[in-house]
Write a structure and sequence with these properties.
Number of helices: 7
Number of strands: 6
Number of domains: 2
CATH class of the largest domain: Alpha Beta
Largest sheet: 6 strands, mixed
Strand order of the largest sheet: 2-1-3-6-4-5
CATH topology of the largest domain: Ribosomal Protein L4, Chain: A
Shape: elongated
Length: 209
Amino acid sequence: MEVSVLNIKGQDTGRKVVLNDAVYGIEPNDHAIYLDVRLFLANQRQGTAKAKERSEVSGSTRKLGRQKGGGGARRGDINSPVLIGGARVFGPKPRDYGFKLNQKVRLLARRSALAYKAQENAIVVVEDFTFEAPKTKKFIEVINNLKVDGKKALFVLPGVDKAVYLSARNLERVNVMTAAALNTYKVLDAEILVIAEGALDIVEQNLNK
C-alpha cells in the first residue's frame, strides 16, 4: 500500500512510502485486539483498594454473648462481620489486575489495529518535524494543514520530542507518542493516525519480531 508523504504545511512532497503488508495489510484478528486492549486497561488500574479483615480491626476479643440460645446469629467479639463497625468478610486487598499475554498475541493485536486504520484510509504520513520551542498555536496550524482538525488524532514520532509534546498537550482530541510506545488501545482510540516518516521503520521493526 502506497501513501503520499506530506510536509507540515499539508503539501505533497512528491514522495511516496510503501506500508509493509506484513504490518498494515494483514487480516485483522479481533480476539487478539480484545485481549490486548483488556490487558492495557487492566494495567491502568491502581489495585490499591483495601478493607480490614477480622484480624486487622482494633477491638476487644471478649466474647459478647452466649454461643446458643440468643435467638440471633452466632457472633464472637466486637470485630465480628455480622456487627456494625465490625470487619469485612473477604474484602478487597491490594492486587495487580494484569495478566499474562504472549508477545506474539500482543504484536498480532497491534498489527491488526494498524491494518484496520489502513483499510479505513485513516493513516497520514508526514515528514519528520520538530519545533524550536513549545507552541500550541503552531501545532494547531499543523493540524489544520493536514486536514485532521475536528478528528481525534494520534501523532506518532520517531523519538521523544519535548517541544512537540508540550505543544499538543493542551489539545483535547490530540495525542502524541513515540513509535516505540505505540499500543493497540491508542491506535483504535484515534480516528486518524499521523505517522512521522522516520517512525515507520521503527513501527515495522517492533511489530515484525
